[in-house]
From TrEMBL:
One cellular component (GO) term of this entry: plasma membrane
TM region(s), chain numbering: 12-37, 65-83, 95-113, 119-140, 149-171, 202-220, 241-267, 273-293, 300-316, 328-347
Classification via CDD domains: TM_PBP1_transp_TpRbsC_like
InterPro entries in the cross-refs: ABC_transp_permease (IPR001851)
Main location: membrane
Name of the protein in question: ABC transporter permease
Amino acid sequence: MIHLEKRPEPSRFWSLATPVLAVLATMVAGGLLFAALGKDPIEAIRTIFWEPLFGEFAFYYRPQLLVKGAPLVLIAIGLSLGFKAGIWNIGAEGQYIIGALTGAGVGLAFYPLESVFVFPLMVIAGALGGWAWAIIPALLKVRFGTNEILVSLMLVYVAEQLLASMALGLLKNPEGYGFPGSRNLQQYPSAYNADLIEGSGLHWGAAAALIAVIFAYVLLNRHMRGFHIRLMGDAPRAARFGGVAPARMVLFCLGISGALAGLAGLFEVSGPAGVVNIDFNVGYGFTAIIVAFLGRLHPVGILLAGALMALTYIGGEGAQASLGLPAAAIQVFQGMLLFFLLALDLLTNFRIRLGANEVA
C-alpha cells in the first residue's frame, strides 16, 4: 500500500531539487502537449529554451529577458513577503494595472512639459496606486476579517474595467483619430522609461527589480521585520506571543506587494508597452505567483525563476511565430510549471512509503 509519512522536518534536499524536477517534468509534459498538436516536441522545446539564448537571433532576444523578467521579479518579490507571512495577495494583476494607470495619468497630465521631474513623479504615483489598491483588501481583512484572496482577486476585474474605461475615456489620445488608447509615452521624452544602456533592455524597471531583490534579502535575513514575517508564517501563535501585531503585518505585506506591483505596471507602460490600452495587462501579476513559488520565496531564487519564466515568454513567442503553436498552448505550458512544482513539493514535507520500505 502506498501512503505518505510526514517528515520530522522539511527536507532541504527536496526543497532545492523540486524546482529543477518541476522544470524537467514540464518539458516532458509540454513536449507531449506539442506532439498532440501535431508539432515536433523536441523542436518546440528547443525553440522555447535554446533559441532565445544561443540561436541565430539571440542578439535580439537576450535584451528581452530583462524586459520580460523585470516586472515578474518585481511583482514576485512583493508577493513572496506576504506568502512567507501567510498573507495571500492573489490580485497583483489589478495592482499592476492601477499602478500603470496612475503613473501614466501623472505623465500625461504634464504633457508636453519637458522636465526631469516628470518621470520621478510618475514612479511615485505608480507605487502609490498599486499600494492603494492592495490596501483595500488589507483594510477589509483587518477590520472585518474578510478573505484577502477573494477580495484581491475580485479587484483584478474591477481594475480591468477601469483600464478599459480610461483607454476609451479620460486617458484617450485626443489626436488618436478615435482609436482607444493613450498617447505613446515612448514619444514623450520626459515620461519615457528608456534603456539606460542603448539596446541592452536594462531600463529603470530592471534596475528596480534588482534593488527589490537586494532589499528583500536584507529584510528577511538582517532585519527584525523579516524575522517577524517568517515567524508569522511558520508559527502564527508564537508570533503573537512574541509581540507581532497581525493587523500591522497584513497592512505591511499587502502594501509592499501592491507598491511593487504598481511600480512594475508603471515601468511597463512608460517603457516597453508605451501606451495605456484595453489589452495592456498580459498576466504578469498571475505569472509572478509561479515565479515566487518556483524561486522558493527566496529573493535570489525569484531572480533566477523570473529569468526562466521570461525565457518561456520569449521562446513561446518565437514558437508561435516559427512553429505555429497557439498562444493558449504556451499558457498551458507555463501553467504546467506551477502544477508540477506544487505536486512535487509534496516530497519536501512527506515521504512516500510502499509498505514498510521507504522509496523517497
